[in-house]
Amino acid sequence: MHRIGYVLPDGFQVMALATQAVFEFANLLAGKPFYAVDIYALDGSARASTGLALQTKPLTVRSNADTWLVVGTIVPLPVEPELLKLLRKIAVRARRIAGLCTGAFILADTGLLDGRRATTHWYCAEDLQQRHPSVQVEADRIYIADGPIWTSAGMTAELDLALALVEKDLGADIARSVAHHLVMHQRRSGGQSQHSEMLKLAPKSDRIQQALEHARRNLAQPLSVEDLAEAVNLSPRQFSRVFTAETGQSPAKAVEGLRLEAARLMIESSRHPLEVVAKETGFRDRRHMREAFMRGFGIPPQAVRREARGAA
Fold first, then answer.
1. How far apart are CA 93 and CA 95, in angstroms?
2. Could you please report the per-residue DSSP string of 193-249?
3. Helix, strand, or coil here: 35?
4. Crossing angle, helix 251-269 and helix 206-217, to 10 degrees?
5. DSSP state letters, 120-183
6. Close Cβ partners of 311 (under 8 Å, ≥ 6 residues apart)
7. Is the pTM of this model over 0.70?
8. For the packed helices 81-93 and 103-110, what is the interaxial angle rounded to 10 degrees?
9. What's the CA gap between 244 and 240, in Å, rounded?
10. Largest Cα–Cα distance of the chain, in whole Å?
């Protein structure tokens, strides 16, 4: 049985505890109790940022887990020296240890992140880099696994990291089924950006949201204004007017943003030739995709791939 141990500092953010559902459903779908989950804190209790008081197992030098998940706080503050001392000791015996959200600050304070790649909530990434120059902070990542040390971005990204752990342990099919049972819209890879193009557009009506979903699912198609308008039963003129009013962008500009987001993820997480990436994400050809990358990111697709390979 694989033992999961949560470590809670005082002021912990309760969202991290939602990741327990990932391991719970993994057990159900695997048909056996593969994971055993325990919660630890200094002195056997911790208080959440919401005021919730939680009784836990006391964290001691004898505490054991195969995977430790160190939970973060809303504002990353120094934790007790005793907690850092214990984490350094118990991490040696574990298979892996992860910092959830600002839990990366706690791992960095222990020295476990020295010389490693790491991520955290985008709002705190610059602070993490300034406090710990020896850590290679990559602010725009959902999660990062650097050897046995894992870190994640904030809030819902913790679920993505937990799913990645399940995939590592039990395979992609189980992880996919867990995501489906938890009604997660999609499983995000670690290399995916913390900033969603869909979220940035933030349409107010269901119709425009449906148009964007239609575009995201059909990026390889031309996706003209007429195509999008037909998908939501509006005239092209009415659709363009409503779309621009709700998102602040033209349909063509929004679709290019979705293509760029998908192409970047595909380049970072696969070995497909750039010609294939361009075709799959709806660009006319490799040259057209390069022009869009220069407009959107300021660097060509080849540079994105080199950075991804260098990080790997």
1. 7
2. -SS-HHHHH--SSHHHHHHHHHHHHTTTS---HHHHHHHTT--HHHHHHHHHHHHSS
3. strand
4. 40
5. --GGGHHHHHHH-TTSEE-TT-SEEEETTEEEE-STTHHHHHHHHHHHHHH-HHHHHHHHHHTT
6. 117, 138
7. no
8. 80
9. 6
10. 68
DSSP bridge partners of 151? 99, 144
Please give the Cα distance from 106 to 149 (Å, whole number): 12
The whole-angstrom separation of Cα 302 and Cα 294 is 11
Return the number of other C-beta atoms located less than 10 Å from residue 298's C-beta.
8
* Lookup result for tokens 């470590």: 7
Residues acting as catalytic residues: 101
DSSP per-residue letters across 10-23: TTB-GGGGGGHHHH
Residue 175: both structure tokens together? 């992880």
Residue with the two structure tokens 């003209």 = 224
Question: CA–CA separation, 266 vs 219, rounded Å?
Answer: 13
Question: Tens-digit pLDDT profile for the chain (312 aa)?
Answer: 999 999 999 999 999 999 999 999 999 999 999 999 999 999 999 999 999 999 999 999 999 999 999 999 998 988 999 999 999 999 999 999 999 999 999 999 999 999 999 999 988 999 999 999 999 999 878 899 999 999 999 888 999 999 999 999 999 899 989 998 998 855 555 544 545 565 567 788 889 989 998 998 999 999 999 999 999 999 999 999 999 999 999 999 999 999 998 998 888 878 899 999 999 999 999 999 999 999 988 889 998 888 777 655
User: Phi first, then psi: what are they for 152, rounded to 5°?
Assistant: -135, 160
